Amino acid sequence: MNGDLLGQLTTPARNRYFYGKLLDAFHFDLEQSYFNRKRWLLNRLTLGAGVVCGLSLHLSNDKTRVCIAPGVAIDFLGREITVPEEFPIDPRQPTDACGKPWGDRIAGAGMVTLCLDYLECEAEPVPVLVGDCDTRNGCAPSMIRERYRLLVHSGLPKPIASGIDPNLCRALVGDLTDSGTTGLAVVSTISTQGSPIAVAITPDGQRAIVLNTQDGPTVQIIDVDTNAILATLENVVSLPLGGVAIAPDGGVAFVTHQAGITTIDLQANPPATTTFLRDRPYGACAAAFGGAVLFAVNSQTQQIDRIDAVNQTVMSSIVAGTRPIELAISADSRWLYAIDADGNALLRIDTATNTVFSQSLANSPKTLALRSTPAGRVAYVANDTEVQTIREDGTAASFAIAASVRASALTSNGKFYYLVSSSESGQHEVIIFSADTLQERARLKVGENPTDIAIVPNRLRGLVTASGSISVIDLDRHLLLCELAGECATPPVQPCIPIATVELLADGSIGAIDTCTYRPRVYSNATLLELILCLAERVEECCKAEVVPAPTPPPTPEPSPEPSPEPSLEPSPEPSAEPSPEPSPEPSPEPSPEPSSEPSLEPTVEPLQPLRVQVAFLNIENQSIARLTSINQPPQFDNGRQLRSIQMTFDRPVNPESVKADEFGADPNSFSVLVQSDWSNEPERYVAGSIVTSDDRRVSRFEISREFRTFPVGKYQVTLFGKVDPNGQRPAIQSEDGVFLRGNRSQGDNLVFTFSIV
Q1: Which CATH number fits domain 164-192+363-488: 2.60.40.10, 3.40.50.150, 2.130.10.10, 3.90.580.10?
Q2: pLDDT (0 to 100) of residue 584
Q3: What is the pLDDT of residues 671-693, one digit of tens each?
Q4: 281 and 258 in contact (C-beta within 8 Å)?
């Protein structure tokens, strides 16, 4: 069937039967064509093209040909290709489009590509009993065999293209497109009651700390992923509330209010609180230097107090305009930014000297957000009519907007700028801009009278405080799936499947056979399910998330300790522009209240990541000749390449005592690196050798015994043991911090792979 027609979308047509209908060859061909084309179309558009199973390659015994093992593939037109038995091919002989030898053999070095092509062959000729008007009676093929042909092309194929339109891929990951389609929506609403006015999110993105003026007021701790309120802290802060900041390590939250500063120990269960500087009202705040220092606006003096959070004392006071209202700290804690609302200025403060630099702003600045770029920091300052961007060198730009600004925030990747707007006319929304161009991308309606916003690190998820609730903005997966209805893929001109590239060496031999880089694949549902389960099991590696371990009994609450006499982690600053007032004597910290009936908050324990390893094969000159890319694709080496050792590169230093192999006469049950071969006469057919470990303990190398010099011809199995021996005889490979190797799940976390020398 014409391949050009198979690549087009056409309206299907099938036979309609009725009594007395004359059926001839055309109608029977139509019947077959209808079902074949439907199946091939669905194969092409739903499964894609690639190898379904099998079709591995190895050298022939005489090492002059490449043998293709049985298997199944689907070509780019959706046609199934079945290779029922092993088939050899000479990779030095190019072929034409029909698979027949064409041109001169390749004599020297080079690269060729082996392709698998669908082929229909007419077979089983039989006499034609009744011919049509234009032919004489004779013989005609009575069968079409669906076969294959192997093509040899000089050079490399094009890299495998993604099966998804790049625009759809960007939509799936939430990259806002020029069309304005964002994939973002208000995905849920958290009922908090009262009037939440401020929110901050821990650096790990797991918890949100919300200040609420409900009956008290209260501090609420919320699980970011489940939206559950984990704890409500009452009678720990006083109205009016100022702001909330979280230490960069995520262990402590600082809440400023009318009666000083309250720290919340987020690692305690239930969260423990301590209040200090009770005679000073504070407003906006920012935590710096790992949480050892807190900058907070003193509502009485309208100065910015630099507070030693360890000793709970004021270190100095910084004169910063006449009414600072917003604070932001750089990632390295070197620069503190503030807005002077009355002076219409952006203040940049050197935290090493408390020196203040001022730059004029448009009238009535309201919000401040800070972004780090390769060229330096950029401050975003907004009022109701414009957003100004100010760079470190003082360069400024202005972008017109139409909003009633309440708060703003930037995503941690610096790509998007969220602006909270709430007008008297009832327009309560979050406006999303591209951070580079300040081009508006979307407007999302949120709860009434929104006041603040915080964005989860490394995500687009944002929490917006509003009257009695929190609006949660995130990628709407259902909306994204709707956007994934892309154009129908057009098949390439050549529908054959590249199954391998073969290296031809200058001496006439065959080198490396690569069945990974250019080979497309089609995975069965069973394989995809296994992959999903594997990813779910190892989500902390794939998604760089943290796994919360099973709940443990909470520690017994203890009274809050007296302020620690330890010195501050921050060096003492230079004298400020105005002397700091003498701090008044502080009352003794009150003991933590007895645990209430509120839900407890389990501390999050950061797990140690599993130990990982990459495997390479080295020759006698310790040069890498191949890497282990998949345990399902055993490497095969020509004996002439002189494989000498197997190198293991770990992702962190390992305990050298745990990486063990030995020479002749040893007990293989004591090896954590066990190399076995079909030719060995040692117990358990182990291969004698030794372990060499690098100075940094990240690289270990198994070198075959010098009696052999290189690995002989044969089949090998290598086991890197990560499973602990309950009898204590065999060591398991582990890192210096005590984390064991993670290998194959089916092998009990031992990494098992094979290779061969021919």
Answers
A1: 2.130.10.10
A2: 41
A3: 999 999 988 888 889 999 999 99
A4: yes
